[in-house]
Design brief:
Layout lengths: L5 H25 L10 H20 L7
Length: 67
């Protein structure tokens, strides 16, 4: 009997994006203390940039967890 894993993979992708969004919101929430001012912007910019860079490098080097 064949196993269709595409549904599982699609659900994992949706949960991954939701988790990244939640992490960004949590960082923004915890670092938005008025006394910090501009220091809040640094993590809000660097976290997404580093995630995008990491995924771009994994894609460029054909890194996959299915090997």
């Amino acid at each position: 009997m064949a196993n269709d894993r595409s549904v599982f993979i699609a659900e994992v992708d949706q949960k991954r994006y939701k988790t990244i969004g939640e992490a960004i919101l949590l960082v923004a929430d915890h670092l938005s203390v008025p006394a910090l001012g501009r220091a809040t912007l640094i993590p809000l910019v660097t976290i997404p940039v580093s995630l995008i860079g990491a995924f771009a490098l994994m894609y460029a080097f054909d890194f996959s967890s299915t090997r």
